[in-house]
Amino acid sequence: MVKNKKLIFIIIAIFALIPIITKAKAVLNAIILLLIFATLGEAWNLITGFAGQTSFGHAAFFGIGAYTSTIVFYRYDITPWFGLVLGGIIAAAVAAVMSYPCFKLKGHYFAVATMAAAEIIKQIFVSWDYVEGATGISLPIIQRSSGFVKRLIYLQFNEKTPWVYICLILFTAAIFLCSYLENSKMGYYLKAIRESHEVAESIGINPANYKLYAMLISAFISAICGSIYAQYVLYIDPFMMFSLDISMKIVLLTVLGGVGNVFGPIIGASIFIPLSEFTRIKLGGSGTGVDLMIYGLLIILITCYQPKGVIGIVQKLTEKSRKTSVGGEGKIEATSGN
Length: 338
Prior knowledge:
The protein is mainly α and 338 residues long. It has helices spanning 2-21, 25-50, 58-76, 80-102, 108-126, 148-154, 161-182, 185-195, 197-202, 207-233, 238-241, 244-257, 264-283, 290-305, 309-337; strands spanning 137-138, 235-236.
């Protein structure tokens, strides 16, 4: 636990130093997206990695957060910070309505149900005139001469550095929350549910309630990520915010890093986002999908040889190194005894 905290602080410190070391827009953009998707991975990990309920519908919560913060600013000129919190609350409420009946399903049935629910929500937004339907919304731009305080209130900046630190604060809060939950009573209950519903029930755990708690927290964090992302890109539409691609990116990067471990989403995002940005910059339109091809190949190799992801590989190598070290010490002692 102490080692984990130290490692988390080191990771946070590295991200905090990057904007000081470089001002390159491409690098800072990659860091911002990395932090957003790592946070989304942490949120997804709560319901899937800890509770064992595979969700393919997290784009719904991401999109709800994006639209809520955008609409309160676009329609009523209210700071997106208010919409950020409101979006999290609405997403959690939608998660409760959407998930509680779905928790009666298990395995791939639950996964398909969440994906279908996300698609229904997307279609609602596509045909909803109040949110500009399929046309999407371009956020109003405040004057470039506005002071920093006003820019902070409306989440619009002339440079990317403030975005790095805003995303880093969100990421830090999410990873410490997930780390705390992992080692809390709720975390142990969720892991018991993941291993066996029947055994969990036999020792007095209510699986439906605890899975719902995990989903509410997961949806709230995902919605906040959606709000931040929307204010960062300054344009949203239902096909972008509620797309299956968003849900699959969250799933794949967490699986690559290691499901059920707080460091899994960080590792996965650190591989996927730079890879995606590098191919986009270097190959442009001619390289569309190359990042996903490479990433897909990585996923296939990882899942075939080490289902626990990169974390599993690191743990295996560490154990092997430890055994070799212990074996070497044993030989030395035997030799000295002779």
